[in-house]
Specification:
Layout (H helix, E strand, L loop, with lengths): L1 E6 L13 H21 L1 E6 L2 H13 L8 H24 L4 E5 L2 E3 L12 E7 L1 H11 L2 E5 L2 E6 L6 E2 L2 H9 L2 E5 L5 E5 L5 E3 L6 H11 L4 E6 L5 E2 L7 E2 L2 E2 L1 H4 L9 H17 L15 E6 L3 H5 L5 E3 L4
Parallel strand pairs: 1-2, 1-12, 2-9, 3-9, 4-10, 12-16, 15-17
Antiparallel strand pairs: 4-8, 5-7, 6-7, 10-11, 13-14, 16-17
Helix pairs in contact: 1-3, 2-3, 6-8
Length: 318
Amino acid sequence: MRIVVALGGNALLRRGEPPEAAGQIRNVRAAAHALAPVARAHQVIVTHGNGPQVGFLALQSEAHGEAGRYPLDVLGAQTQGMIGYMIEDELRDELGGAREVATLLTEVVVDARDPAFAKPTKPVGPVYDAAEAGRLARERGWSMGPDGSAWRRLVPSPEPRRIVEIHAIRLLVEAGVVVVCAGGGGVPVVKDETGGLRGVEAVIDKDLSAALLAAELRADALLLLTDVDAVYEAWGTPEARPLARASPLTLRGMPFAAGSMAPKVEAACRFVEASAAGAMLFVPTDSVTGPRFAAIGALADVAAILRGERGTRVQAGP
């Protein structure tokens, strides 16, 4: 099988942990241990979140004033290299030479006319008090939004349209390489007036980029791995229950938290719907494993999720 695995931020930095290198490497080692059996048996492409890391780098950047301040696309590229290095190193050790592992810096094209640019919604970087947030909004033109009792910068989160390095990724996968790519949703770029690409101040949702990556690679499965063991109906209530299987139609009729489960459900639905429609560069009947599927669940359960024994499997159907 060809499998795209999307690691949530908890694979690197668990809730409440300080952003120290040693702790992140320890968490990546656990993730690599869970992924290794799957990577030995299948073609695996790994993508990952980068939210805490981008926030930490933004804080470091701010500490050096105007001269040391880097734009978000550059910070995103930095995190791809840093996190990719950690995953590549630990996964190579776990595989013991059974597979080559390579990290590929990945750009993702977005539309400069995307409505998201007019309505920033994605919080990034450090928190500020109200006075500092107001000053930054005036001086830099930033959009600011509340985050609990503090304030954070809000940036656009446009739709991913095209993965620039998709042909290079495909060549590596077909050569048997485990590829780490499209980290943090990829570096957002737009076409300029000459037809070239330039980075923009935005953050692409990593789960939506993972769905696009899986579709363009003709993957058999998209696994969205997080710190929750399944998608739950009526989450947060006494009636909450895990869903073992669901269709996009069923899931689209349920409410999910915008900042956590909703993007994963949307990504799973998009991949399955595109597969069923034969859209986005692939024909569903060429799979050697039957209908393509997406699944959402806990990283530690990845092997069982792939077998359909844990997590929530999303497939086309009524």
